[in-house]
Amino acid sequence: MYDGQEFLRDKRWCLSRRTLLTGAGALGAAGLLSACGAGDSSADRTAAAPGTVLAHTGDVPVGGGTVVDGVLVVQAEAGTFTAYDATCPHQGVRVGAPRDGVITCPAHNSTFAVGDGSRLGGPATRGLTEIPVRVDGTDIVRA
After folding, report:
1. What is the pTM of this model?
2. Rounded to 10 degrees, what is the CA torsion of 107, 110, 113, 114?
3. pLDDT tens, 68-89?
4. What is the secondary structure of the chain as a DSSP string?
5. For 115, what's the count of Cα atoms within 13 Å in the CB-facing half-sphere?
């Protein structure tokens, strides 16, 4: 379950343009649409700046991962850490940590490979965007 801040950051509460225009009418829709779209780029949702410690190596299970500050950090193979923008390219919903080697978007079940972020299935038309990271001791740092 999301807390209020997490819910707002995910912007799941924003209606689609079609739903808003047909349900609310065109008069009040323009302001609401601009509010939902403001700051909605994946660069805005990925808050971790270069040099930010995203996780500790012991916090990321082999074959799994963790989402931190809009970044999904995974360890597909022991000792190999990769990171992706945790935003699904389909409609911008945050993906969850991988299960059984698969990253899944909770909105429409787009799936992505843990090893390279490539699209496996669902409505997304491309894979997840890789984010460069480096390991510094036991810290996984955004490069």
Report:
1. 0.68
2. 0
3. 989 999 999 999 999 999 999 9
4. ---HHHHHHHTTTPPPHHHHHHHH-HHHHHHHHHHHHTT-SHHHH--PPTT-EEEEGGGS-BT-EEEETTEEEEEEETTEEEEEE-B-TTT-PBP---BTTEEE-TTT--EEETTT--EEESS-SS-PPEE-EEEETTEEEE-
5. 2
